Every structure is written in structure tokens, then in C-alpha cells.
Amino acid sequence: MKHFIYKGKRIRAGDQHLVFRFAATSLVLVFLFVLLAFHGKRLMLMDWKKVRLLHEGSLQFAITPYLMFSVSVAAGISMLVAGLYYHFHRDRVKQLVHRQKLAKMILENKWYESEQVQHDGLFKDLPSGRPKERIRHFPKMYYRLKDGLIHIHVEITLGKYQDQLLHLEKKLESGLYCELVDKELKDSYVEYTLLYDTIANRISIEEVTAKDGRLKLMKSVYWEYDKLPHMLIAGGTGGGKTYFIFSLIEALARTNAMLYVLDPKNADLADLSEVMPNVYHQKEDMIICLNQFYDGMMERSEAMKKTNGYKTGENYAYLGWPAHFLIFDEYVAFMEMLGKESSTVLTKLKRIVMLGRQAGYFLILACQRPDAKFLGDGIRDQFNFRVALGRMSEMGYGMMFGEVEKDFFLKQIKGRGYMDTGTSVISEFYTPLVPKGHNFIKEIGTLIRSRQDGQAACEAKAEGTD
After folding, report:
1. pTM, whole model, 2 decimals?
2. Which residues contact 443 (CB under 8 A, 6 or more apart)?
């Protein structure tokens, strides 16, 4: 017997007026409750047998100042309750709006089956007027908001509207003002997962953490580098690329990961050489570092299989070994600088992206535009997590994400862009917030010194034990 899985609220044809129906019902109840508070005692003491609404053809109903006051107060309290409910339960209101939009989408596109019904009039001898439409089958669609993610399940019945229901990405993103993060075809259902209120999922730099082989970048977004290795970052000047890379380095510096930083333009990242080792900007030093990184990966791959406790299919983390990250800024500029030597470097980078996951050797490449000239031969496809920040051309987006049916919009927000977490679904992305005055060099230096002191203490303790 299959386990029941709650899919959410069923979208029905009547939901096209859901917001009005909910508001009207709720406010009428509040209005009547307040009136009852004013007039309840009088109504209870009233002799209803003597009440006459009509007497000799005239309405026996007096509008008193007290009645007008109570009605005004009841109306005011109803409006106040509506305002407070919207302020404190905005997500619930949004859910009603979303469900109403989904119902209207199905109705306006006529993705349902109906029949014409002729109703009998009051008198059977008289014509009853135009026939009315009755919905015979309304597609099963369910809506659920959980942990900042909207889950929409749509039943696939092999009907004539199957193609439309299988490709709702654009309509859902633009209509609900959300970003698609996943699409999964299940047994007779397709599930669309959208990130609700994307900018509200933005986190501060203190919340960026690396643990258990994944790096938290937004409230509901992780780079799972152990499963989907290597990150590609693209973005022009002022897009927030450098701050994003600094944020990654600071988060990784809190772990036991080994970091290698290459900055061919001798820009901001090169300043890290003051507080941490393995930071290079000279051409020769960068090539040596790259070769050492490659050799270390190959040596670890061999050593893993000879280590006691190694099991086929397990990775470096199973053995308790630290991850190694090569952070490469302005990658394309460096490759152009190399000239003929670029082919040798490209070959080693290709081996790293192909073999690095199991050994725990990962690449983070950043450039202004991922030119296919230096990311060819399938290398670009091996970068599972991709981020495009700031303003980019359609060609630039095509280089990053390939040919996708996605509308890219520009918003004047620093650190905003688009990402692919490895699911081939492109969604909106915001880099971690960096507070004003935050000194990356100082913070990273403190973390590196703390880690070095801890390692020294462990080594001293081990020597003392011996």
C-alpha cells in the first residue's frame, strides 16, 4: 500500500473568487460579532412575538444615533482587523492570491472539460434562455507553501491539455512572481517547486556555513559540492562577484578545507596573501600552484585506495580528509595571458573537473564571461553550480546556462543574479549580505590564525603523547 503524501490545497474552479469570498465571509462575521456586542443584551430581552417589521404598509424600523454609532464602530473594527491580518499573516494572504491565480489560469486558458446544460425555467412552457456551461472535469492541481518553497502538483492524465500542464514554468514564475528551482515528474504527477519571495531568502554573511559537504548560500539554497562539484561564477564590474568570492572563502576558512587563491590581475583577492598562504598573482607562481593542486589530487586518488577502511564508492569525507578548493578569479584573463601554454593548463583543469569530486578537489572559477574558447571540450558542463551576477547579455546567459527557455530580467540590486544549482533549472539568486564596514581580510586572517593555532596545539599534544 502506497503511503499517503499530502500535496496541498486542491485548486478548484470556485477559487477564481477565493480572495473576495474569504475577505467577505471573515469581515461579515467580525462585523456581526461587534454589532452583537452592542445590541446583544437588547436582542435577548426583546419580545420577538410583538416585533413587526411592517405595519399598515410602512416599515417599522428606526435608525437611531446609537445604531449608527455601533454600525460605524463595527465597520471600523472590521477594516482594522483586515489590515492587521494582512500585516501579520501576509503569507496566508499570498497563498490565497496564488490559489486564485492558479484557478483563473486554468479557467481562462480553458484547460478543463465542460458541457452545455439546459435548465428548465420557472414555467416549463416558456423558453429557459441560453444554456449554461457546467464543468465536467477540472484538472487536479494542488498548492502548498512550506519552508519558503511553493510546491505545485499537477496531475497528468494523457488528456488533450497534457502538454500545457507539463510546461507551466514561465506562467508560474511570472504569474506568482517566484523562481522555479526544481521540476520533477512523479507517478502521474509533475511537481513544480518555486522559491517564494526570493529576496526574503537572502542571508547575511554570518549565516553562510559549510557543513557535511554543502555550503549554505540562501535560506533554501545550498551548493552541495560533495555531490555536485565545481562552481562557475560570471559577472561584470559592479555585479558583486568579488564580494561573493570573499564570502565563499570566509565560510570555507571556518572549516578544515585547504584553500588556494589565484588572482591574475593582482586585485582584491591578491590582498589575502597578507593573512593566508597559497595566494598567488604572478603567472609563474600561478602555474606552479595549479600543477601542485593537480598532483595533490592524483596522489590522494592513489592514497585513498591504499588506506585502511576505504570502500569502493566512498569519497574523501568518508576517510575524514579535508577538502581542497582552488579559487580562480579572472580565469579567462589568465588563459589569454598564457598564450600557447593555455592548452597544457586546460588539459589539467579538465582532469581536475572530471576526477576531483571523489578525491575532494574542487574548482571555483570566476570570470566576466565564460568564453567557450577556454571552457570547451565539455569542461563547462562539469561545473554543476553556476552563478551569473549583475548585468549580462543574452549571449552571456547562453554561455552560462546553455539554450534554455528562461526570461532574464535586470533588477538594480547589487549581488542579484541567476543560478543553476545542478538541476538544470535556472532561478533568481542573491549573494549573502555583507554589512557595511565588514573587513574580509581581517576576518579571514583571524580564522586562518585560529585554525593554525589549533593545528599546532594538536601536533604538540600528539608529540607529547608519543
Report:
1. 0.73
2. 250
